[in-house]
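User: Modeling request: complex.
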Amino acid sequence: MVETIIGWLLAAWGIYLFCGFVFGVLFVWKGVGNIDPDARNASIGFRLIILPGVAVFWPIFIRRWRSQVSTPPSEKTAHKWSAS
Amino acid sequence: MGHTYRTVTWNRQKRIYDLVLWSGIVGYLIVFMVVGGLTFPNVTIETLLLRSTSTCAFLLLHIILSIGPLTRLDTRFLPLLYNRRHMGVSMFGVALVHATLAFIQFHALGDLNPFVSVFVSGTAGDILSSIPFQAFGALALLILFLMAATSHDFWLSQFSAPTWKRLHMLVYGAYLLLVGHVAFGYVQDATSPVPGVLLGIGAMWIVGIHLAAGFRELKYDRPVAPEDVSADGYVRVCSVDDIEENEAVTATISGERVAVFKHGNRFSAVSNVCQHQNGPLGEGRIIDGYITCPWHGYQYCPLTGKSPEPFTERIPTFDVRVEGNSVFVSDHPNQLGEEGQFESSSSDDSSSIP
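Assistant: Request completed. Predicted assembly structure:
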């Protein structure tokens, strides 16, 4: 029983990563420059190095790409909250 | 940021850092294999490889976890912090070699799905020795993978530094899992007390230096005493003589530390939080006219809080006032990009510098 549950969980994780990898290849090729201006003219090496992370966090980048977010989120510290 | 990402932004310091790091890793593995092979001639090469890579990665993790607290306790350790992410990725690489070898040797050749086998295999017997310790190692490896995969500055930018740091705080979870991995694995194959003793010493060291650094930091985060706040919202931070030229003192104002720098004939105050990795700007210096973060060298103009072109980072500034021998800082930050005002009414300098 435990083996079956673990098998299903690992299969789900594998499918999730596979989807992320497929999306990630397209994203690092075409999409990353749209959501981060610093990535527009970045090298192939940069695109490859972020691919594993995109394959894990791909839902975030699908949302940003679809909503045409063109800049990274700005950090909010206590002082920035006070200043705004 | 404001500049095109590169795969790795190499410079002389990073090359030296990585050269020393990888010389150490390769040297450790060679020495371990040679000494291990000579001391235990019956041990197979696979076992030596497994043990050398596991101890190397675990030792590197101890070093990585020690760097942060050590830099809080003694700034001479700062060079270790400069390229810590490369050390983390290297550690993940060594751990991945260990995991791959273990996966092949202990799981790949059985009847059970080898990935499932990692999470369920243990030896029958009492409860301690039946715990599938390899599952702890696999979960730790997953965390280390997440950290290595998000180590590029792109991820700092996409997540923002606070979220990125929270993600990378999972390293402590990985450490606990690895302590379990080693401890339960050791229980299942205890032939010598040495691994257990070393594991305990390592854990006590990690806990000890974190507590020491934490206690040291507590005094800097104390809220300002009411008697140090003036009626018009200025906070007395220190005496003029407390700050060395081009250096800073910090005080907690408006919910976060403020760094007050002395440079030339004036004082400037900025938020203490570097926009890159939230490094402590107040522990840096003014170099070439810019506040320089001690962690990775990110720079900010002390007057405006802006990074020099082409970088686009900005941190809030605070107005500063010197009265007599006391330095006061406004308890409210200026708008981002707004220049911090400075006034002086001290006896030896009655000028007011807007």
